[in-house]
Amino acid sequence: MKQQETPGLRPPSPEHHPPGTALATDADSGSDSDPGSGSVRPLDVRPADGQLLAARLVPLRRPGQWASAAVLLVLFAMLVHTLFTNHRFQWNVVGDYFVRGSIMKGLELTLWLTGAVMVSGYLLGIGIAAMRLSGNPVLRGLSFGYVWLVRSVPPLVQLLFWYELASLYPQLSLGIPFGHEFVTVKTAHLFSGILAGYVGLTLDIAAFSSEIVRGGILSVDHGQTEAAQALGLGNRRIFRKIVLPQAMPAIVPASGNLLIGLLKATSIISVIAVEDLLYSVQLIYNQNYLIMPLLLVATIWYIILTTLLSIGQYYVERYYARGSNRGAGGPKRGFWQVTRANLPLFGSARTDLAGLS
What we know:
By secondary structure, this protein is mostly helical. It has 14 helices and four strands.
């Protein structure tokens, strides 16, 4: 009597699977075969296109990423622990001086100087960038020489130069070149510490901002301008509607970095006894010798201001990059999405260890 074979449960025959070839069952291969059918498929047989299309997508698991994150979290926990357990930080003193009147006055001067220098420096820098991009060789040469000279001299040296300008030019005058003078001002009474800091930092920021603006404009393909000219648009409208929106994604990150650097660079005016945030702190700890707690006061204020500026930079960048990010790799996964995607990693590791035992 001939035995009837059941479809789908026929065992593999030696002629179809040569010696040394591994076989994968449903339990081993997961989605490689039909679930519940109990069929086996040789590992050297490629799945069909329909099986590949019906397969469940498994997120990429990153065990190295989890290990490095765990190490960093441990180091961060150690840092937080020592901040709160080391009594030498004297957090009670930090709290007492954090909003003291002299500290707030120095903070106000720091913010004012940062804003004034940034606005003035960028206005001057845009003019220098326009000179550098012009077709006039004299303007290009002068703008190049200015950027080269200012970038070659450290900001502290520039600051001291303007503060001591009276030793070179006791008076400044306004009048006809090489002729009659109408107005004369004595430099010793003109350049105070604040004005010297404002002028020195403004000239320094103008040099760097001009290069940022010039680089952003040059990043826009010239074909965009030619296409707009072919449509009959004017130069002003081309710059405002086409060149500037495409240049801003390249200008904003560098400008934000320059602004944060300027906020901290204003502390160098303390060398000419201008009472900014850092100099106000120095005046206090020179009297009570509580150096570290008062330096922490200045540090925390700089961290707060830098954080606020970074948040503002993030939203400005997102605003100008809303067109360039369209369809660039899809949305990024957040922390919880990554966690859920990597949870099966621990289950598979436990299964592998159980199989070895």
